């Protein structure tokens, strides 16, 4: 049954389920990247960020995901300012609640695929999800060392490792960058299923506009601003 207009506007205006909020974020390195950016991310919601190479997408994702203190502005996670938290509290959030999928994935290369997954289970107390590994088509590489895996297998393994710890927000920087179309679809379906089934949120950085538009909101980083495209 469709929601009444009144109910819809209540949902849209409801700020209680905001997980992460960026307020007036500005940052620069050699040149100014962005100025006074505001963004809200709610649970179960997916948002995507597109923009030219060098526009600052990865930098903005680092700021959102607790890794880089912005020149000015605040990042609120569950209404708490990430960058004024005690180091220990920030580390706990990063370890337990945030799942960060980097543009360059950081697996432990001398170790096997299953060792890399076991590290995530040790840190989080969660179990390895066999169905997830089958879905990502990496269940048969568990005993191989990371160095023996293809680039796409390594990427899927790093995504499985992140999901294994059951994060509340996934930050994914070009998670399908090395993958063929079919495998990219499997990865994106896995990420969308994950956020749906776990009341989690997704912040996706991508170059692919088609992929970006599958998210609830799509933004473009351009001329120092984040503009909503849809
Ligand atoms: N740690 C850093 N120190 C100095 N400059 C940096 C640093 N990180 C990024 N930059 C610069 O900031 C700019 C934006 O980089 P960023 O990685 O955020 O771009 P991007 O939009 O993710 O690009 P791409 O699409 O190529 O991944 C670039 O000019 C980059 O050289
Ligand atoms: Mg980048």
UniProtKB/TrEMBL annotation:
Question: Is the Transmembrane keyword given for this protein?
Answer: no
Q: Which InterPro entries match?
A: AAA+_ATPase, ABC_transporter-like_ATP-bd, ABC_transporter-like_CS, P-loop_NTPase
Does the UniProt entry include the keyword ATP-binding? yes
The cross-references to Pfam families, in alphabetical order and at most eight, read:
ABC_tran (PF00005)
- From what superkingdom does this record's organism come? Bacteria
The ABC transporter domain sits at: 5-229
Q: Which GO terms describe its molecular function?
A: ATP binding; ATP hydrolysis activity
- List the SUPFAM superfamilies: P-loop containing nucleoside triphosphate hydrolases
State the UniProt keywords alphabetically.
ATP-binding, Nucleotide-binding
Cross-referenced PANTHER family, in alphabetical order?
Answer: ABC TRANSPORTER ATP-BINDING PROTEIN MG467-RELATED, LIPOPROTEIN-RELEASING SYSTEM ATP-BINDING PROTEIN LOLD
Would you tell me the protein name for this molecule? Answer: ABC transporter ATP-binding protein
